Amino acid sequence: MDAIDVGIRFKREAPALAEPSDPLVLRDWFVDDLPAVGVGAEAVTAEIVERLLPLCKNEAHPQFCGFGDTGDDPAALAAGIIAMFTQQNLINQRFDAPVATFIEIAVLRWLREALGYVNPQREDIQTVWNVGGLITTGGTMSNTIAMMLARENQAPGTMQSGVEDPERFSIIVPAGVGHYSVRAACTWIGTGAHIIQVPTIGFRYDQDELRKALAEHEGRIMSVVAYAGDSRTQTIDRLADVAQIVREADPRIWLHADACWGLPMAFSERLRPRLAGIEQFDSVTVDPHKVLAIPYSLSALLVREPESLRTVSTFSDLIMQEDFAFGQVTPFVGTKSWGSLKLWAMMRSHGRAGLGQIAERRVALAGRFAELVDAHPRLVRLHDPDMAAVAFCYLPPGIEDGTGDVEAVNTFNKALHSALLADRRWFLHTFTLPDDLGRIAPGATVQALRLVSINPHLTEQHLTDLLAHLDALALDLC
Ligand SMILES: Cc1ncc(COP(=O)(O)O)c(C=O)c1O
């Protein structure tokens, strides 16, 4: 009971950013010897509260505006605690996870339906191979399994024979905005980093360039990856166009959509059209721990053809010899916790309408922030927001937008971000971004600041307060 109380107070009261500490000081405080005599559970819990929590960041704080991993949905938190106590193991069904397995199947079907995949009738679900999805530990794992599926699709039996002629396993990604996990996945699964980067316009594939790349590398492409929300600007690609272009060029290519950010749009009638075409992709990654306030960690990979998961299945006579054992279809994983209960509880507690409203509120708030950025004389917005992210630059004094003094802008924004971190009251993310819309200097790489409007406690007042805070910090830097 005390631990739950501590957890709730942490989420409500802990500051956005932890007390700043030198990593080497932290090392020397905490990397110590195991006590010869145990201190007992109560003392350990007190130590966690007193010594560790002040050194933790709190993403549930509304002034932590750089990401959206709040992990604070009440139903998900409650379910997560209960799931931990139950110690179910999704590797097997009958004795290890009798009901948990079917909760996992239910939630996977909800996700599939939201994305527009066709679900088999309930009575036709006879085995895990009729489900069409997997719960995984994160977007990186889901993308890795997607690349394995692409590999088996390109060269069936590679699971057994190993990779031959790696040149055949190239993948196409959008230049400058792709997430590193897809490239890493290809190196982990042995197909090598044969990555073809296609130029973008406005953070989406330049479709003529995509056609050209497909023609130039014909026969050697195992997958084309498109983003329903890239990692930096959360721009959604024109998924229906990408699917059509790829299918026309070569219908055997595995189409993978990374919808780590885009999933919530699927629940809103109004926003759903922005994902149009996603149901034509062979696989889709979603990341509820980023966008649905699910405590870490929880992602899912959904596949258009449920049976395609057979190509990466594992068999053993030790365990898993049963129809509904998820251990058979989940590469890299043996024992698996009941993480899906968190998502099941969250989705059930809000319902489809509530999930849609969550998405709409975030998009409206990002739109409002974009207006405030546009109205500010020294801020330049770097993209037209599709979802819950707004990336922008602060212009230093003496520099006007379009003047092309990228170095001065980048140096100033780096310094501004450092000042923000040192102050600790607000957190925005920073990264480099191709200036795809030429807002600072066409073709340049700019140092962007980014707000994410996912936190349910973030209000319009916070947005104006944040900009006032940035102005004060910027003034100090001049
Ligand atoms: C678009 C995209 N895909 C995949 C990932 C990886 O997700 P995870 O950190 O859950 O492994 C990220 C993480 O930021 C992402 O932005």
Question: How would you spell out the order of helices and strands?
Answer: HHHHHEHHEHEEEHEHEEHEHEEHEEH
Summed up, the domain count is 3
Bound compounds, each kind once, are: pyridoxal-5'-phosphate
Q: What summary fits the major beta sheet?
A: 7 strands, mixed
Strand adjacency order, main sheet = 1-9-8-7-6-2-3
Radius of gyration: 23 Å
By CATH, the superfamily of the largest domain comes out as Type I PLP-dependent aspartate aminotransferase-like (Major domain)
* Overall form: globular
* First-to-last CA distance: 50 Å
Cofactor: pyridoxal 5'-phosphate
InterPro entries: PyrdxlP-dep_de-COase, PyrdxlP-dep_Trfase, PyrdxlP-dep_Trfase_major
Organism: Glycomyces buryatensis
Keywords: Decarboxylase, Lyase, Pyridoxal phosphate
Characterization of the model:
By secondary structure, this protein is an alpha/beta fold. It folds into 3 domains: 2-56, no CATH class; 77-348, Type I PLP-dependent aspartate aminotransferase-like (Major domain) (Aspartate Aminotransferase, domain 2); 376-477, Aspartate Aminotransferase, domain 1, CATH 3.90.1150.10. The protein is built from 14 helices and 13 strands. The strands form 3 sheets. It has a 7-stranded mixed sheet with strand order 1-9-8-7-6-2-3, with helices on both faces. The chain has a 4-stranded antiparallel sheet with strand order 10-11-13-12. Helix 10 links the parallel strand 6 (221-227) and strand 7 (254-259). Helix 5 (100-115) runs parallel beside helix 12, helix 9 (207-216) runs parallel beside helix 10 and helix 13 (406-423) crosses helix 14 (460-477). The N and C termini lie far apart (50 Å). The relative contact order is 0.14. Pyridoxal-5'-phosphate is lined by residues 138-140, 143, 179, 181, 227, 231, 258, 260-261, 287, 299.
